[in-house]
Design a protein that fits this description.
- This protein has strands spanning 29-34, 47-48, 61-63, 68-71, 76-86, 89-93, 95-97, 107-114, 121-129, 137-142, 150-156, 162-168, 178-184, 189-193, 196-201, 211-219, 235-246, 259-261, 265-268, 271-272, 277-279, 284-293, 302-310, 316-323, 332-340, 348-358, 363-373.
- Helix content is 0%, strand content 46%.
- It is built from no helices and 27 strands.
């Protein structure tokens, strides 16, 4: 997880007059498009984040997969926060990321969504480096739910400082759908709300590394503060679409997404299993993963690695490494591995991850699923109670 410091500061020397308009999308290449039309949020596009044992920003929620919902009636994705105990946390919510599925350097990124409302509710649309480093970070939209007329737009610098601007709208942004967008070039960051430029940054700290997209609803935390008796639940950020575009031609230094990894699929003892697997010593987990090369061919060589690590991140080790073969544009890479749960594996959650390391040292990795080991009879995690029926606008 990444620590986000969200103090409202303004570095006026790094801003300029707002004469900009959104780029002409007809001249750009659409590189990502998720329209949230279905009953669920597709794992071929999104990785669902989970709360680690380390609490970030003093937040109060656990991120659970069932809180990431689709709504066929409203044709939206629903990132839903509820007052519900799970694993010692008082609330559950949803976080989705394109980590290892999509990243990009420079371009135009846009979300159309309706934000939630309430003291202690913290919706965000943001970007992080695919390398796993922090900072930098770009927050396209953050909101403190006690004031749903305001949007915070921030770039976090490598040195730990930041440039943040608060935009105040004449309307309550939780009552309808609005667009939140970022234009990112080698020399400029421009934030848009409903197609109008609200912040421009032209300083020396513009990120120049591939970044992936995140959207989430946090509950509580250092910045918005805790919920109180005025906060009603459930709350949700309802997303119509998230899209990304690349400039044509691509700015010098921009790295295309070289490897698009598919979600990891697990079968237990030869049978299909739910998204979360509970295994015991001796069980065989058949793990399937694949990747698509593109849009450009990559140097031959490198490795395709699949591994496992404890939920807390340690220990972590690879249990299969295969050499990469064809790396022509649009070629497919596939991997299947059978993992037998050892008797000495401690009870707890374990991540399954994939890493692609090309000859050119480009790394793309993902944590796409996890499984639980329960060799002992004592439950180590609280059961997750069912959510009430879906919300409707």
């Amino acid at each position: 997880m990444f620590l986000r410091l969200n103090f409202a500061i303004f570095l006026l020397g790094a801003t300029s007059a707002f004469a900009q308009v959104p780029p002409d999308l007809s001249t750009m290449i659409q590189t990502f498009d998720y329209e949230f039309q279905w009953s669920g949020i597709g794992t071929n596009f999104w990785v669902y984040n989970y709360t680690t044992p380390t609490i970030i920003n003093n937040e109060l929620q656990a991120y659970t997969p069932d809180a990431c919902q689709g709504d066929n009636v409203a044709s939206v994705g629903r990132l839903r926060a509820d007052r519900r105990m799970w694993n010692g946390m008082a609330y559950t919510s949803c976080s989705i990321t394109t980590f290892a599925h999509f990243d990009q350097t420079y371009g135009y990124f846009i979300m159309r969504a309706r934000i939630p409302k309430g003291q202690g509710i913290w919706p965000s649309f943001w970007m992080l480096p695919s390398s796993g480093a922090w900072p930098p970070e770009v927050d396209i939209m953050e909101n403190n739910g006690q004031d749903t007329t305001s949007v915070y737009m921030t770039v976090h610098f490598r040195n730990g400082a930041q440039d943040q601007t608060k935009y105040t709208s004449a309307m309550d942004l939780s009552t309808g759908y609005h667009t939140y967008a970022l234009e990112w070039t080698p020399t400029e960051l421009i934030w848009f709300v409903d197609g109008i430029a609200r912040k421009v940054y032209t300083g020396q700290n513009i990120p120049n590394v591939p970044m992936y997209i995140l959207a989430n609803v946090a509950v509580g935390g250092t910045w918005p503060g805790s919920t109180n008796s005025s906060t009603s639940f459930p709350q949700s950020m309802d997303i119509d679409y998230i899209r990304a575009y690349q400039f044509n031609p691509v700015p010098a230094g921009a790295m295309p997404n070289p490897i698009s990894l598919n979600s990891i699929v697990i079968r237990q003892n030869g049978a299909s299993v739910p998204y979360l697997v509970t295994a015991k010593a001796g069980d065989t987990l058949s793990i399937y993963s694949g990747a698509l090369v593109g849009p450009n061919a990559l140097p031959s060589g490198g490795v395709y690695e699949i591994g496992i690590c404890a939920y807390s991140g340690s220990p972590c080790y690879a249990f299969d490494v295969q050499p990469l073969g064809a790396l022509a544009a649009a070629s497919q890479i596939g991997l299947t591995y059978k993992y037998v749960v050892p008797a000495n594996l401690a009870d707890g959650w374990y991540n399954v991850y994939v890493t692609v390391l090309t000859a050119g040292a480009t790394v793309t990795s993902q944590v796409a699923t996890r499984f639980a080991v329960r060799n002992n009879s004592t439950p180590f995690i609280a059961p997750l109670t069912a959510l009430p029926p879906a919300l409707y606008p």
